[in-house]
Amino acid sequence: MRAVLAVVAGYLIFAGSAVLFFQLLNLDPHSPAAFGFEVVTIGYGLVSGSLGGFVAGKIARRKDLTCGIALALVIALGATISMIAQPGAGALWTQTAALLLFAPASLAGDWLRRRTRRTA
After folding, report:
1. How far is 85 from 106, CA to CA, in rounded Å?
2. Could you report the per-residue pLDDT of 8-65, keeping only the tens digit for each?
3. Domain total for the chain?
4. Residue 54 CA to chain centroid, in angstroms?
5. Which stretches of 1-120 are assigned E, i.e. beta strand?
6. Which domain holds residue 93?
C-alpha cells in the first residue's frame, strides 16, 4: 500500500507542477509553442519528473526501482491516452515529451534516490 501511495504522490508532484506551470503562464499545453518555450518546458518537465520519481522512491522506502518504474508507466499511459483522445487536434509536443523524456526521467529520479542512499 505504501508503494501505491508513493507512486500517487510522485504523479501529483509531476502532474501538479505541470498544471501549475501552464496555468501561471496562461497557456494551453496542447497548442503549438515557440522553440525556446518548448525547451524551457521540457527542462521543467525533466526536473519535475525526476523529483516525482525521487520522492516516490523515498516515500516507499524500497531498495529497488519499482516505484520509479510504476511512475514512469503511469506518466507514459497518461501521455498515450491524451494522444489518442485528441487525434489530429492541437500539437502533441507535450505528450511526446512526456512519453519519451518525462516518464524515463521519473525512473532516473528513483535511480538517483537509490544511488544516493547507498553512498550516504
Report:
1. 24
2. 999 999 999 999 999 999 998 888 899 999 999 999 999 999 999 999 999 999 999 9
3. 1
4. 11
5. none
6. 2-119
